Prior knowledge:
By secondary structure, this protein is of the alpha/beta class. It has 2 domains: about 10-40, no CATH class; about 50-140, Oxidized Rhodanese, domain 1, CATH 3.40.250. It is built from 7 helices and 4 strands. It has helices spanning about 10-15, 35-40, 50-60, 70-75, 90-95, 115-125, 135-140; strands at about 65-70, 85, 105-110, 130-135. A 4-stranded parallel sheet has the order 2-1-3-4, with helices on both faces.
Amino acid sequence: MLNKHLTQGALALLMATGALLPSALALPLAQGEVDSAATEASTPAPAPAAQAARQAWQWIQQGAVVIDVRSDEEFAQGHLSGAKHIPYDRIGEQIGGLSLSPDQPIVVYCRSGRRSGIAQATLEAMGYSQVHNGGGLETLRAERP
């Protein structure tokens, strides 16, 4: 049962953060009402990596340029069909060779999403406005439509 010494403010904070669900208070719900906090808590959210990969595929299907920012060796071992190759630590120097407009949608990816995140930040700092970090190659392959 709920501790009687909780203030209304603390109670509201616990409920707002999801740490305390209304059902824990044994408050009756109106007929037909659903405890949305309990429902949300029991429904797992999609993994961020899978979500990023699915969004990357949407961009790719709409014509985004795909850039693999892994090392030369990694790229040689396999990459997405049609992907351009510019290692993340050279993207600022070599992106101009692709002659892209600053508003051209671009998807960058690597092995895990870390290097592609660095490449994304570099491109955005250079004025490219539509850059998406697709994450890791294996996740992209797993989420391919």
